[in-house]
Amino acid sequence: MGVRLRQVALVARELEPVVAELVAELRVVDEPYSDPGVGVFGLHNAVLAVGDTFLEVVAPVRPGTAAGRYLDRRGGDGGYMAIFQVDDLAAARARVEALGIRVVWRSDHEDIAGTHLHPKDVPGALVSIDWADPPGSWRWAGPAWTKTVPQHPGGGIVGLSIQTPTPGALARRWAEVLGLEATEHTDEARVSLEGGELRFVPVADRRGEGICAVEIVLPGATPRTLAIGGVRLDVQQGH
């Protein structure tokens, strides 16, 4: 499988309006899943299945959360987290440890494991390296995806753009964390994934470093660009 971008999280002041807009625009069929486990972080959330990938929205429910501070720092709703799925968790965790990267949260189950990395060590977003068995399952999306792979439409999240003052350096950092290679171009850098790509681009607004765009493929969709939850959603037509 290599390394796959399996889930992207947005952070919002108010959960419901952003979720409703995403459901309508992306034609989400299944009811979004609300994970009670995020309460430990002072959040509530909704996880939307897009193909066999997932778009999550989180919002603070109490003062003093990391997500709330991030909203303040970036001046409102925006991209927050990128969750990558790997097939060799032990190797990925050993690589992270060898690089001296701090782990801020870790959770291990028989069918899934998650490893959140310190955003000061891997800037640009909250990065998590996860593993699932079977590979198509995804406990974080709820009971329907726990230890099994339900019937689902095609398509999914295929790309992510992160704006940064240092595209080349940040791309190299993410690449070494993921065990991949970065390629640098004139004004941006890229990291190829299994079925997708990360793009690191110059900062284009006053919000500073962070996720600025998500690329999604949907069967039969009209290609279009949307602005929802503080990010650009580039929707492409899939088969």
What does this entry show, briefly?
With 239 residues, the chain is an alpha/beta fold. It has helices at residues 15-26, 66-74, 89-98, 167-178, and strands at 3-11, 43-50, 53-60, 78-86, 103-108, 112-117, 126-132, 156-163, 182-184, 189-193, 196-201, 210-219, 224-228, 231-238.
Descriptive overview:
The protein has 239 residues and is α/β, with parallel strands linked by helices. The protein has a single domain, classed as 2,3-Dihydroxybiphenyl 1,2-Dioxygenase, domain 1, CATH 3.10.180. Helix content is 18%, strand content 41%. It is built from four helices and 14 strands. It has helices at 15-26, 66-74, 89-98, 167-178; strands at residues 3-11, 43-50, 53-60, 78-86, 103-108, 112-117, 126-132, 156-163, 182-184, 189-193, 196-201, 210-219, 224-228, 231-238. Strands 2-3-1-4-7-6-5 form a seven-stranded mixed β-sheet. Strand 5 (103-108) and strand 6 (112-117) form a beta hairpin. The chain is globular. The two termini are 21 Å apart. The mean pLDDT is 96.
Which term fits the overall shape? globular
Integer average pLDDT: 96
Number of domains: 1
Helix content: 10-25%
The CATH topology annotation reads as: 2,3-Dihydroxybiphenyl 1,2-Dioxygenase, domain 1
Strand order of the largest sheet: 2-3-1-4-7-6-5
CA-to-CA gap between the ends? 21 Å
Please report which band the strand proportion falls in: under 5%, 5-15%, 15-25%, 25-35%, 35-45% or over 45%: 35-45%
Keywords:
single chain, 239 residues, alpha/beta, 2,3-Dihydroxybiphenyl 1,2-Dioxygenase, domain 1, seven-stranded mixed beta sheet, 41% strand
